[in-house]
Design goal:
The structure is a homodimer of 227-residue chains.
Chain A (H helix, E strand, L loop, with lengths): L3 E5 L2 H19 L7 E5 L2 H4 L6 H18 L4 E3 L9 H5 L9 H12 L3 E5 L2 H5 L2 H6 L5 E3 L3 H14 L7 H16 L4 E4 L16 E4 H14 L1
Parallel strand pairs in A: 1-2, 1-3, 4-5, 4-6, 6-7
Helix pairs in contact in A: 1-10, 5-10
Chain lengths: 227, 227
Amino acid sequence: MKHIGIAAVTAEGAAITYKYICSASEQVFGKHTHPEISIHGFSFSEHMNFGPERLKKWQDLLVRSINKLEATGAQLVICPSNTPHEVYEQVCKKINIPWLNIADEVAKVAEQKQYKKILLLGTQFTFNSAVYPNAFEHLAAEIVIPTDEEQVLVHSLIVDELVSGVVSESAKQAMQGLLSKYAQQGVDSVILGCTELPLIIDEALTQLAILDSTKILGDAAIKAATN
Amino acid sequence: MKHIGIAAVTAEGAAITYKYICSASEQVFGKHTHPEISIHGFSFSEHMNFGPERLKKWQDLLVRSINKLEATGAQLVICPSNTPHEVYEQVCKKINIPWLNIADEVAKVAEQKQYKKILLLGTQFTFNSAVYPNAFEHLAAEIVIPTDEEQVLVHSLIVDELVSGVVSESAKQAMQGLLSKYAQQGVDSVILGCTELPLIIDEALTQLAILDSTKILGDAAIKAATN
């Protein structure tokens, strides 16, 4: 069983993924058994540098985190935050262990489930980046992006509340309204393209099929650790 | 700010402590700001070796975990599980960075709050070990240990449910009954001497003052990281 490294950007996202990997592993390896796991994270405030230097800064932080994880013996790495995958290719050139791309893993599941019209939710950076368009470009599925106003709403819910573990009833209602609107427009599924979104969106909240990037990434990491 | 290492025994315990440190740090350092943090854990099944070799095995696992954390740059380490502190002294002789002892930190708070008669809850190993008696030996406070039957109940709730993140209503009721009995016997406070117990015991469940070893350890780590 390979040693999994988790490059943490937010503690909430890393903790959810870490716990998910350990509990889902029990189904594969038996009670109380999971791969060896290391997590490393700088202060989240470091990643919040959203100025013109942000891509360079993110690359630097991720390379340093992944090198630290390698020093613990980690043989593969995941980053349970979607946004930083914007620098995936540049970082991969500078590290020595494989990094599983979260959007590629989501695309594999979407293809397998044959979803056709998929709503993407995430931070403003995920909406603006090529992370999901790149991962889905070889698929027939259409990716639907929320309106500018909705993007601002989703982004601020994530950054102001969810990353600090705050789950409010008003936020849930806002998300429910948004999902319902897109369901009426023929969308069949939604990508929770932010590790913290499962805190607020589940099967009880929407009729759309859910592509939970956190669980998909966790499952992919377990599979990669087993091979 | 010093880099904190977390030697994980259970994913639940480590994740709770990790999230607590990050959210509590915001009060000290400002929004989204926390110390650099590394976590390392072997499979929990490795720690479940409860045979005659367990003390030797625990020492070995903790020394290896702490060395891996040191390799990431961690400057101090905590272990958010009470039980393994049984080998605290032996491990400290074999590592290069300071390890904050969870029971010593709980004792400091108990002394400051002037609690007099304190119920200890934890796994069977914590009940049987000298971890808390040693930490409290210089204090006037009396440590009360549950009956043999109650010890078995608390231990199995932790090992069979809480470490896997399962919180049942029947378990809550059982704990409420136990705490109420000791409150009637003059106990003034309870040590949650197991990182997972806060999942099930909070102020709403009992009139006893709560010494939450997880939060106390997290606060101590933040303080140590700041000095």
